[in-house]
Write a structure and sequence with these properties.
The protein is α+β, with helices and mostly antiparallel strands and 417 residues long. The chain has 2 domains: 246 residues, BirA Bifunctional Protein, domain 2 (2-Layer Sandwich); 91 residues, 3-Layer(aba) Sandwich (Rossmann fold). It has 16 helices and 16 strands. The strands form 3 sheets. Strands 1-5-6-11-10-9-7-8 form an 8-stranded mixed β-sheet. It starts with 13 loop residues before the first helix and ends with a helix. It binds histidyl-adenosine monophosphate (HAM).
């Protein structure tokens, strides 16, 4: 049997790198005072159809929707934001101090055509700041995303930034764009797409379409005074925070809830699936899900793609050995001592391991080597009779004889903190 199409297992040692990427990204959010929310991996389908938007590919083509045994329509989350907003509304988190700053991490599911960096099951680290419409908060959130990537040591990435306007200026702009698009030579399907969401046509990668879009009106040129002032302030704060960006007036996101500040992080070492994260402000989402008319801003980072980016830059992350000390017992008596010593070391916070099964000296030393331990304790029955064991530093090859009574503190000190 194999894993379902578009999914994969992450096995040791790669899984250590996956965890390191995930944990580095979330550590940044925890340090910034964001609170963790654990939300279900599936929601009532309407959370996404109303939240993410019926016209998006994510909702119309990519959702894993099923009817449960009680006749409810449920959907495996294609992203985390809508579910977190549902939780925010359900538990009236808006009754407390605003903004409510939250983060989460977990699986997301999209029925997409699998390719490198695009999977049907993937992991997102998600950050949201809810309830306050302040450009300084936009800048904080964007900067957190940038800093997460920097914490990993990534440098070859770019922040694409734009403003998508809001309910006061987007409808007029939309009309303008539709007017422009109707005059173009487009195929039937593209026309239909233009009717549902004309902005998406701007993102069409086909050269014959792009060639006709040179003079297309852009949202950033038609922002209302207040959304323009908001965008200017966001950029000012980002400059103050030392964040650089590229203006991306044609940036189109795959989810419908965005308003005003909208952004994507792209990595240059990844080929077609270059977006390692993305997000923006979504001032209508709470109301769309039946909550109060409150704003929000956030982003999600794709852990799987970020791991590919880390590998593309050749960064050495999560490769430190999981085991510090390895005990090789030779004989039944030594085995007891080995099990006890490993237990003691683990109790004291040292990553320790030993061999199981009848391996013999050669097999056991191979296991010790493979474990990556810096220190190996070898306990033979003859040594034991003399009350000693051998401690080998695998980095230098140096071997010392240690009295059994001193073994634990000696190993403890040798492996370091
Ligand atoms: P998104 O751009 O759809 O935004 O996804 C965020 C990131 O998840 C992408 O940049 C990518 O790294 C990763 N990702 C998406 N689809 C796949 C896939 N099929 N395979 C692998 N990785 C994938 C959101 O999901 C929004 N909820 C972000 C947000 C939070 N906006 C506001 N708050």
């Amino acid at each position: 049997m194999t894993a379902p199409k578009g999914t994969f297992d992450i096995l040791p040692p790669d899984s250590a790198r996956f965890l390191a990427v995930r944990d580095t990204l979330t550590a940044r959010l925890r340090r910034a005072g964001y609170g963790y929310i654990e939300a279900p991996a599936f929601e009532n389908t309407e959370v996404f159809s109303r939240g993410v938007g019926e016209s998006t590919d994510v909702v119309s083509k990519e959702m894993y929707t099923f009817t449960d045994r009680g006749g409810r329509s449920l959907t495996l989350r294609p992203e985390l934001t809508a579910g977190l907003m549902r939780a925010f509304i359900e538990h009236r988190l808006y009754d407390g101090a605003l903004p409510v700053k939250i983060w989460s991490v977990g699986s997301a599911f999209r029925y997409e055509r699998p390719q490198a960096g695009r999977y049907r099951h993937f992991t997102q680290v998600d950050c949201e700041a809810l309830g306050v419409d302040d450009p300084a908060l936009d800048a904080e959130v964007v900067a957190l995303g940038v800093q997460g990537f920097r914490d990993l040591g990534l440098t070859d990435f770019e922040l694409l930034l734009t403003s998508l306007g809001d309910a006061t200026c987007r409808p007029q702009y939309r009309e303008l764009l539709v007017g422009y698009l109707t005059k173009l030579d487009l195929d039937e399907e593209t026309r239909r797409r233009a009717e549902i969401n004309p902005l998406r046509v701007l993102d069409d990668k086909r050269p014959e379409v792009q060639a006709q879009l040179d003079d297309a009106p852009l949202m950033v040129d038609h922002l209302s005074d207040s959304t323009k002032a908001h965008y200017d302030a966001v950029r000012q704060h980002l400059t103050d925070l030392g964040v650089t960006w590229t203006e991306a007036p044609r940036l189109v996101r795959g989810l419908d809830y965005y308003t005003k500040t909208t952004f994507e992080f792209v990595h240059h070492g990844l080929g077609a699936q270059s977006a390692i994260g993305g997000g923006g402000r979504y001032d209508g989402l709470s109301a769309a899900l039946g909550g109060p008319d409150l704003s929000g801003i956030g982003y999600a980072v794709g852990v799987d793609r970020t791991l590919l980016a880390v590998q593309a830059e050749g960064l050495d992350i999560g490769t430190a050995s999981a085991v510090q000390a390895f005990v090789v017992p030779l004989g039944a008596e030594a085995k007891r001592l080995a099990v006890r010593l490993v237990g003691q070391l683990r109790e004291d916070g040292v990553a320790a391991d030993t061999v199981y099964g009848d391996r013999g000296l050669k097999g056991a030393m191979k296991a010790a080597d493979r474990s990556g331990a810096t220190h190996v304790v070898i306990v033979g029955d003859r040594d034991l009779a003399e009350g000693v064991a051998q401690l080998k530093d695998m980095r230098t090859g140096e071997q010392t004889t240690v009295p059994i009574g001193d073994l634990f503190p000696t190993v403890r000190a040798a492996v370091g903190p």
